[in-house]
Amino acid sequence: MLRYPYNFMTLRLGIIDYLNCQPINWRMAERLPQVEFFHGVPTALNQALIDGHVAVAPISAFEYARHADELLVVGGLSIATIGAVNSVNVFSWLPDPREWDSQPIALTTHSATSVNLLRVLCEHHYEVTPTWTAMQPDLDTMLAQSAGALMIGDKALIEATVRRHIGRRGLPYFFDLGDEWLKTTGLPFTFAVWCVRRDRAEEVHEAGVIPALHAAKAEGMQHIDEIAQQYAPRLGLPPGVCAKYLRDLRYDLTESDVAGLQTFLTWALPDFRWQQVEWFDSFVQAEVTA
Fold it and tell me: Is the whole model's pTM more than 0.85, yes or no?
């Protein structure tokens, strides 16, 4: 169980420190000096937002849908991809995912959307039923015990770029789930959206958090090369690889991104209805005019 050593009434923004979030994190502390920041992996931020420890955060698209009655979606902000992006990957000893039936597949504990994307692909695309095991994201350990391993974020990007041999078994096969989703649907895949707790919406509005996020994204996208140069040493990767990765991502939650998200949620959560989605801007405007 997570323990939060802070006053819950403090306005707090969740931050994912992966490379893929850096354009939206750009100079955020300068923009919002009155706001506290909570840093964590995606699953930690999911829980912090649901528990009320943070008022605003990027959240797994899957977990948003499970808690749509408590959360408002921020328009124009997301982490999405159309095709391969190299940071949501399955590494496998088997050359074809259709061989995964009844095979053990290790799942990272740092993601909810990616785990359920893999489940959806196995059911609707590969037509297999693996056995799943949640594990800490260490590729050597995962592949020592499993036929495949789902990795996300910075560690996945490193492994996809370096493509190293694992133990004595050699080089594992590699499947990018953004690319697999595109092959299946022809649509982008939205991994995360930014959400506001419904019960903190007025405070978030008054503090100007959402305009600050949009301003950070707009400026951050103009500084991709600088972000890549600063972040690359943390990963041990060339800045050019990091810059290309950031330019391949989609951050704007366009109509096509929403269409891909709707398709995913229809398969992953059949009881979810898109009519449940409520947008932060619409909610705030309704509250102000009420």
Answer: yes
